[in-house]
Design goal:
The radius of gyration is 17 Å and the shape is globular. It is built from six helices and ten strands; from the N terminus they run ααβββββαβββαββαα. By secondary structure, the protein is an alpha+beta fold. It has helices at 3-20, 32-43, 97-116, 155-166, 202-211, 214-228, and strands spanning 50-54, 63-66, 71-74, 76-80, 83-92, 121-129, 131-132, 151-152, 176-184, 190-192. The longest helix is centred in the middle third of the chain and has 20 residues, at 97-116. The protein has one domain (3-228).
């Protein structure tokens, strides 16, 4: 396994641990390890004229960006001479994916248009679980009872993202899209799943392994930053 993948799993484990603490699901603390990992990985490939605003790096604050339609705090913003030129958002879906899948996707389309219409580069990295727990609703912010059988990721769940990846270059399409699929062992250690264990077509497996891979995402995002500068 590559060092970047190893470091990524370490960051995911820290984020997942923070998420599982009391109140962690609502706290930004769960985002710090993974945002810090991505920021440092990107920054080391750029010269000193670039900087990054994100949780876990520098002053530890996100950049407030005035998009085309509404203001938004950017997860990881790359600045050149103190002006934002590119950003990547990050989403780790930990539970109840299928219940909220369309909302996640629609939010991505709106976020993309809001940012890209201001002329800066936009990328999105999505982490899904191969076997996602489903929790029933409960009062307040408390987690409900977990259903015995987890939701198993399949071809249909990924189809909308692949269609978006293959779409023409419209403002609702991210400049770059990455997806990885993880699971956790009994000690809550994350690992990359074997795509052969899931109901994915060969074409989808190829896209996940190549076009959507973590290494490809980082490499292409660096190129996007340099293009926008």
């Amino acid at each position: 396994m590559s060092k970047i993948k190893q470091d990524f799993l370490v960051a995911i484990k820290k984020s997942f641990s923070a998420y599982n603490k009391k109140g962690g699901a609502r706290s930004t603390k769960k985002l710090v390890p993974i945002h810090k990992f991505l920021s440092k990985t990107i920054l080391k490939e750029l010269d000193r004229s670039f900087s990054i605003k994100s949780l876990g790096i520098g002053d530890g604050k996100e950049l407030k960006f005035y998009g085309k339609y509404y203001p938004k705090n950017l997860d990881i913003a790359v600045l050149k001479d103190n002006a934002a030129i590119a950003t990547t958002s990050f989403k780790f879906i930990t539970s109840n994916y299928k219940q909220n899948a369309n909302n996640y996707f629609e939010n991505l389309l709106g976020e993309t248009a809001n940012i890209r219409r201001r002329g800066i580069g936009f990328a999105h990295f999505l982490v899904l679980r191969g076997h996602t727990p489903y929790f029933s609703k409960n009062k307040g912010n408390l987690r409900g009872k977990e259903r015995k059988n987890p939701e198993i990721l399949n071809e249909r769940n990924l189809r909308k993202y692949i269609k978006l990846f293959q779409d023409l270059d419209f403002p609702h399409k991210p400049d770059l899209l990455g997806i990885c699929v993880l699971d956790f062992d009994e000690k809550r250690n994350p690992f990359f799943v074997n795509f052969d264990d899931f109901d994915f077509s060969d074409k989808t497996k190829d896209i996940l392994q190549d076009d959507f891979s973590l290494e490809n995402f980082i490499e292409k995002f660096i190129l996007l930053v340099k293009l926008k500068s």
